[in-house]
Structure formats: C-alpha cells, structure tokens
Amino acid sequence: MTAVRTVLGDLPPAELGITDAHDHLFMRSAALPGQDLDDAEAAAAELRRFAALGGRTVVQWSPFGMGRRPAELVELSRATGVQVIAATGLHRAAHYPPGRPERWYPRLADLFVEELTTGLHTQDDPDSPLTGARAGLIKVAGDFHHLDAHTRTVMTAAAQAHHRTGAPVGVHLEHGSAAADVLELLCAGLGVPPSRVILGHLNRFPDLGAHRAAARAGAFLGFDGPSLANHETDWRLVDTLVSLAGDGHADQLLLGADTTSAAARGNPGLTWLLTRLRPRLVEELGEEFAGAMFVRNPARAFAVEWVAGS
C-alpha cells in the first residue's frame, strides 16, 4: 500500500496537504551545547500558527539519539491537528557523545527498520521501550565536502533499511556540500533509487550547477530556511527555485523552514514559509508552481509503497 507514515498512522499521500518538508520540533546535540529544542509549549504554539495558515504536515528530521521525544510528537500532532512525520537514522558523529554511535553500528540497519515498522524508541537508547509511533523517513548526514567513515557506515545501514521497507532517505548535507558524493554512494554504490533520496540544505551551498546535476540524477532537492544558519544565502533562494523550475525540475523541489518555534535561536518560525515565501513564489511562477512545492512534491517524496510486512 502506498502511504505516508506519520506518528499517528499511515495516510494516503493526497491527505498530506501543505507541508513543511524539513524541520525540528525537538532536538538535542552534543555539537550544539545549550541549544536544545525541548519546549513543547512553544512547539505547539508554532504548529497552531502554521495550521491557522493552512499548514497540514511537518516533517521532523531529528533522528535517533537526538532527543526526539516521540511521545510528545504524538501529543502535539493530536492537539494541533498538524500531521508529523518522524525520522529514524543517525546524524553526523559530532552530534553524539564521543564513542556512542560506534556502539550502535552493528545493529543500525535493524534499528532503523524497527523504528520504521514497529515504533520509535522512547529514549536515546536502542534497548529502550518502543512507542506505537513509527518513523516515515531515514535521516542520514554527509560531512563537509566529503563522506567520512561514520557517514559511510550509517548510509550503508540506511540503504539496507530502505531496501527492506521502501522508506525514503533524507540527507543532511553539511553546509549544503557533497551532494554528488552522497548520490554516488547511496544510489550508484548502494542501489537506492535517486527518487527515494531527499537532499537537504542545498540553499546553504548555492551552486546552481551542482543543484542541476542532482536534479538530473533524479533526487528530490530540499531548500530550507530562513534561519540564522542560512541567512547569508537566503536571498538567492527564490532565484534558484525559479531557475530550477525553468530547467524542468519543478516537480523535484521541496521547501522546509528548519526553524522550529519562532522563539528558538531567534528564528522567524514555520509560518514564514506561508506568509513570506509562498507569495513570492506565486508572484514569480504562479499558483500551480507553489502548489507543487508545498503539496504535490512532498506527497510524492514521502509516499512509500511499503514493503509487505512493514
């Protein structure tokens, strides 16, 4: 059955609606001390503002071991009416305490499959109890302009989990770099179809030639912001999207806020996507294009023909 897997269950892709394709409601990282995202009330308020503007779905890219708080994701989705797609997978090694990811390596593929098919672990521990909420995305990460040993280990496990379930693979590109390396490993090397790969943070590396190459390869291209991490390249975003659409890639483009609550880190919040960016895209390319980026493309990117038994 083709479905989008949310924390409240599977949905027909047509019910996804307007989607923030890349965000973080909860997150904890060893690389970002003092910047934990752990305010459920702020997240709920932001989701309600998003819903009031017509937003229907948020894709939460925080992977295993980074304070996802799956039980609260379920509560937030029920309370606000916003559908939440959760992620399994692992981030870059720098986001975990030293030595911790290595202890998980022997069981990574099974861990990812378990979270996609049975339920997310309640704690940042593969031996913790499972919730009933399942992941709908495998999140992995490249390193800056290269793929280190940790990345290759995690991507190999993610590819195995994809082949066992059909789940899409979302890729954090560090500062938007190494897209070609990622596609070479995941697709050419490990057999993941490019149409099942979502490249994130491309706006942080505004090389239109690299974007076109990734699009020609068949991947989904994720552009996210605004945020303090992206502000130096945000001004190029609309022109980049217009150029890629003009090249025939409008059906491969995804948008995310990647800002969590408006209060977090001084960012403008999810609503910027609909109050500021969407009107610009309508002005430049029309309602049809805006509808593709916010509704139809996410419905295809996150819809899965789930393998029997998953």
Automatic annotation (TrEMBL):
Signal peptide: none annotated. SUPFAM superfamilies: Metallo-dependent hydrolases. Pfam families: PTE (PF02126). Keywords: Hydrolase, Metal-binding. The modification N6-carboxylysine is found at K139. Belongs to the metallo-dependent hydrolases superfamily. Phosphotriesterase family. This is Phosphotriesterase. The lineage of its organism: Bacteria, Bacillati, Actinomycetota, Actinomycetes, Pseudonocardiales.
